Amino acid sequence: MTTLKPAAGPAPAPADGSAPPLVSVRDLTMTFPGKRSATGRRGAPVRAVDGISFDLAAGETLGLVGESGCGKSTTGRMLVRLLEPTSGSITFDGRDVTHLSQGALRPLRRHLQMVFQDPHSSLNPRQTVARIISDPLLVQGWAAGDARRRAAELMDLVGLIPEHIDRYPHEFSGGQAQRIGIARSLATSPRLVVADEPVSALDVSVQAQIVNLMERLRRELGLAYVFIAHDLSVVKRVSDRVAVMYLGRIVEIGDKKSLYEDPQHPYTRALLSAVPLPDPAAERRRERITLLGDPPSPAAPPPGCSFHPRCPKAQPLCKTERPALTVAAAGPATREVACHFPGD
Ligand SMILES: Nc1ncnc2c1ncn2[C@@H]1O[C@H](COP(=O)(O)OP(=O)(O)O)[C@@H](O)[C@H]1O
Ligand code: SF4
Ligand SMILES: [Mg+2]
């Protein structure tokens, strides 16, 4: 298999964290207008993402987890500027990209790429693989012959047979189609790839192969990933750090190992208690935390801590005061938690 070097890749971040972040997100918010009812009346606006902040270093993978509807995809789409944020800021490589126009974004697009959940529906069925993978290159002004050669190299890189370059998406399995989606995302040697549930639509047997491929590509190409998943088990494999979202907010963020070993937020604890353990004896012993009900609507979030109606530890204070994301006194210094009563 070929190993492609990044065209203008960054140096990996030094381990001491002294490099400036590749991506800096501050108080990022996305509010969608409320849906119209049958009578034409507009519902309350939906605050899909509600003031989130985090940094991502070059070459780092941040896992983004939380139940369906908590704002993961909206966050991902803002990061690659498929959506323009309502407020807050996104800095990429030191440059504020929050409200850049489409024209001003064009030269940056090559560095901001996305892999989608359903490979087949995200690939144009009427285009050949050659066309699909080379399209981002043609947009960047590559000559057709060079783009085709690069597409064939990328197919090899992601474990596809380059001779299949003139086939159409329906001729590939789900796992192979996702490899095409990954090849397309890598065509322009991006520095950030947002992968939005890239394995959720695939057979379990294929999921590990795609996760392994993405990990290898990150090592070889020095990419930074935001890896979105609705459960914590897939994210465990790939992430350096993990952010847990609930109703548009980050409720806990920290380095993966410590977060999995010692979750501080009751919501993280509940999500983790649902992840099956490989050791059957440990699986029998462990305590499951069942969350009551579904997440509330982001159009009408509960006051105070928005998790309080479902939280096994809720106190009266939780109903009135929204907890800020901070380093918990008793928790690890590398962890931030939004809870009045974190820990055990
Ligand atoms: N284009 C849109 N218009 C209106 N509401 C939206 C739009 N996109 C997402 N939402 C709403 O925003 C919330 C977060 O959605 P999303 O980011 O897709 O969550 P997730 O990816 O975590 O499942 C949901 O309530 C969803 O219905
Ligand atoms: S602030 Fe209160 S309701 Fe919210 S997670 Fe912490 S204990 Fe639960
Ligand atoms: Mg989503």
Question: Could you describe the 3D structure shown?
Answer:
With 344 residues, this protein is an alpha/beta fold. It has a domain at 120-189. Helix content is 31%, strand content 19%. The protein has helices spanning 72-79, 102-109, 119-122, 129-139, 144-157, 174-186, 204-221, 232-238, 256-261, 266-273, 280-285, 316-320; strands at residues 23-32, 46-56, 61-65, 87-92, 95-96, 112-115, 192-196, 224-229, 241-246, 249-255, 336-337. The protein has a 7-stranded mixed sheet with strand order 6-7-8-3-9-10-11, with helices on both faces. Strands 2-1-4-5 form a 4-stranded antiparallel sheet, covered by helices on one side. The relative contact order is 0.14. Residues 5-15 have low confidence and may be disordered. It binds adenosine-5'-diphosphate, iron/sulfur cluster and magnesium ion.
Mean pLDDT across every amino acid position: 90
Low-confidence stretches: 5-15
Structural class call reads alpha/beta
Strand arrangement, major sheet: 6-7-8-3-9-10-11
Q: How many helical stretches?
A: 12
Q: Would you list the SSEs in sequence order as H and E?
A: EEEHEEHEHHHHEHEHEEHHHHE
Q: Summarize the biggest pleated sheet.
A: 7 strands, mixed
Provide the gyration radius in Å.
Answer: 21 Å
- Shape, principal axes of CA atoms: globular
The span between the termini is 48 Å
Work out the helicity level: 25-40%
Give the total of beta strands.
11
Which hetero compounds are present in the coordinates? adenosine-5'-diphosphate, iron/sulfur cluster, magnesium ion
> Which band does the percent of strand residues land in?
15-25%
